[in-house]
## 1
Amino acid sequence: MARDIYQLKVTIVGTKPPVWRRLLVPGSTSLLSLHGIVQAAFGWEDYHLHEFEINGMHYGTDDGQGFGPRPRSERGARLASVATEGTTFTYLYDFGDGWEHKVLVEKVTPAEPGTTYPACVGGRRACPPEDCGGSWGYQEFLIAIADQQHPEHDAMLDWAGGEFDPSAFDPGDFAQRYRPSGSGR
């Protein structure tokens, strides 16, 4: 059983109103597993590359393209070894759209017996659709779907699967989406 549980608040930078999730994650979780946890909490589809930046260090998977310095392995880096209570760091998903997530370690507490971790225990608003163009594109998407007279209203709704409720959020969705990777958690 996990000993220390990190309460994280993960917010997508540039979304208005803010899109965020509150997660409870064992300190022994690898950053690679944390990536999967964040993906499940927001409903991202894990179609794109990602990277963590913590205290000036980059952690991720080397894409082999030679852009910038090679990131450190996220597989071996544990949350408890790179962050403490009060630490803020960045999780970047989809280098093209540039979905920047601010991660705040709100507190570190002992594990509660009988509680399943990781868990999503709070949040607000629906995750933006994949490939909508980052925070700026998401704001444009919201404007278009809110205005039936907008020239892109129908096309945007069709692209989003016919409907999109930006206020929708259910923390129970996490348990349905999260699949442990078996890759170092």
## 2
Amino acid sequence: MKTALIQLNSGEDPDQNLQSALRLVSEAADNGADFILTPEVSNCIASSRSEQFEVLVHEADDPFLKAMQTLAAGKKIWLLIGSLGLHCDDTQERLANRSFLIAPDGNIAARYDKIHMFDVDISETESYRESDTYRPGNKAVLAQTDFATIGMTICYDLRYPSLYRTLAQEGAEILTVPAAFAQTTGEAHWEALLRARAIENGAYVIAPAQTGVHYTKNGVERRTFGHSLAVSPWGEVLADGGTEVGISYFDFDAAEVAKARSRINSLRQDRAFEVSK
């Protein structure tokens, strides 16, 4: 199954971001891709919380989501919108960071709200507080398709291996990790973490990413790492998007999941244990 990872440089204007995404997803579909994935916050990366609240809308009113559903139906593709920033129905104080799997008929097959918030102090000059703007989800999500079972995650979730273990043990053959990974942590950890999640779970890991400079505020850039990656169940990098906006392709083969798990079947060998202090 031909699969395409869309690498974006989303900015502060959702309409411009939509046009960029539509162009690349259409190109990938026209080139024969049946499963296409976009990165985290495909619709907006803004420099301030207030601006995000001003330009973003509720799911039912989101033009990005509607346009992507229409495109998926027209091209008859499976489409993972890595995530959209959206207003929540249950709170006016924080947004949702929500991933969508769109079926070839245009309907939403699954939704997943990012569980782990990127609240970190990387250095004295670089810190993030995602929980100030987004409220965390609390449910892991498995999505059933006609080609594989998909475990849906987003970006910082990558650092919590128990989530991926649970998804794989419940049947996930593909683990999706759409991201807007910071430049500093991307250089240090991105590939290593993705390959680890693939190897330890015997699953494909597909991680479309944001790339480049998204805005500059008070002389400080918001820059993401790029390098959208597809990793095989044996840990091989099958596609690397580099640092430019564009499309990376690879072929998904469900038989490779079964093959990897038959060689090292650690998913069924976990044991309970106690910690002695």
